[in-house]
Amino acid sequence: MRVAIIGMGTAGVSVLRELVKHPKFNQLDIDLYDDKVNMGQGVPFQNDSSELLINMPSKKMSLNLDDETEFWKWYKQQTDFNFDEPAYLPRFVFGHYMKSYLSMYTKKYPNISTNYNKVQEIYTNSNIDETNLTYYICTTNSEQSWQTYDYVFLTCGTFAYHDPYNLKGKKRIYRYALSNI
């Protein structure tokens, strides 16, 4: 069976973690779709500011339903980040935790592939009352590059920041003012 996960932030990585546990996991061919910046991390957990803390205690954060302290354990074992008061960690640290699991899975399992092309269209071509659907994912206009799937998980999460006043890129406009003081 062919499976696609579109969007590899928190929801996408969580879906993948659950699929890996499934008894028929080895029978799945899984393609992961997201851009290189967001793959495994998602928009809210980018490397932006160490002042932007997660509003949940670090010891209570986890993508693992069976171990609510998994993020804390990961933080204590890794060597890239060290904060004096880690009770509430910056968002980007959680992003690196998610990315580390995605990296581990893509290296460990040959049936998982990453695709950094933007999904332009998803459609199905079916008759009324048909239950066995085939989903088509298009990343280009060329029919030869369209991929077919038995199952598709749409895990798009948070969309890009909207700039209704067109302030992005203007001088003296800082999205995260505290980090520029």
TrEMBL record:
InterPro entries: FAD/NAD-bd_sf, HpyO/CreE_NAD-binding, L-asp_N-monooxygenase_NS-form, NAD(P)-bd_dom_sf. It comes from the Bacteria. Gene3D superfamilies: FAD/NAD(P)-binding domain. Signal peptide: none annotated. Residues 4-158 form the FAD-dependent urate hydroxylase HpyO/Asp monooxygenase CreE-like FAD/NAD(P)-binding domain. This is Pyridine nucleotide-disulfide oxidoreductase family protein. It comes from Staphylococcus schleiferi.
